[in-house]
Amino acid sequence: MKITVMTADERFITLEVDPQELVENVKALLEVETQVSLQQQQLLYHGREIRNTDRLSSIGLVEGDLIMMVSSPSRTGANDLSLNPDGSAVNPRAMQQHIRNDSHLMNLLLQRDPAFAEAVLGDNLDVFQNILRQQHQQKQQLERQKQEEIALLNADPFDVEAQKRIEEAIRQKSVDENWEAALEHNPEAFARVVMLYVDMEVNGVPLKAFVDSGAQMTIISRSCAERCGLLRLLDRRYVGTAHGVGQSEIVGRIHVAPIKIGTQFYPCTFAVLDSPNLEFIFGLDMLRKHQCQIDLKDNVLRVGGGEVSVPFLQEKDIPVEFLGEEKFANQGGSASAELSTATKKVGSSSAPASTSGPSQVDRTQGSAHEAKIAKLVELGFDRASVIQALNLFNGNEEQAAGFLFGG
Prior knowledge:
24% strand; alpha+beta; 33% helix; Peptidase_aspartic_dom_sf; 6-stranded mixed β-barrel; elongated; Ubiquitin-like (UB roll); 4 domains; 17 strands; Cathepsin D, subunit A, domain 1
């Protein structure tokens, strides 16, 4: 007899079967036609699921009847997705594949737990199992903390130590809720931030200038000043120490030298530091003097009230040594740093002077993937997800794009 099967995608398949045929054999025929495995098929007749061991005649199926077939990916054996007492998976390969097939879950893992997402996409089942065990231990620890909180709430209200622990528990809960809210509404806050650099020329020598409105003075290193041919103008009467997060020796001052921004030349004054880790900081003194505007919307530095605009450099264009925060740990630092100088006046005794000075903000480590990141961001994905996807696929732009589109 002939029967008709309607699939989940509304296709109609006609089969020639024997009335005494087992339902399981009908599923085997449908597996060939639809590429849906037998284990994932669910057949419905008059809204009731029919079992593999039923015969077609025993369920009342007659010539020309219609059967519904729905695909059930979740019909994987329950044991395949269960966990051992230590939190590891009974069938790690099946669980790994199950998580991979859930694109929404994978996108959440990319944002909230990239290490676990990498383990899901990788081939090392030992790493996958270890992370599951760690998560299980963390869950047990949270449960213990909850029990302790309940015990605290039931404690003597006049116990000072108990009340302090309750206060700390409430504070920590607020911190955790704030962190979760940031992950949901402001995930880019957890991504790397690239500092503001522009191309400049100092006395005809091209270099990458760090634009820092928190530095009260423009700074050049001794080695950079030598490379630019400016040491001959060094006034050694202006010596001292720059204090901030760390400190650096000030070897003098260059009172005026030409810098080129875009197509225009401007006079600039520099404090010269004996530091191998920084090169050139374009500080607030020159930003004010030359009426500069830091335009983050258009990502440009405007100079001279807008007569010149130069773009801020992308991460891939910034030298790697400028991006490592460890290299700047000993540099003069915060916006409240002080620059102490001892000024020797010709024909008189030395007189100390003090003024506010340079700023050095911590740099975050970068990578050479900015072009790929920008390209994927232009496709409509947020920067944090793009960075995580590229990291998971070792910088492979095509695989990262395929994964993001799959979400």
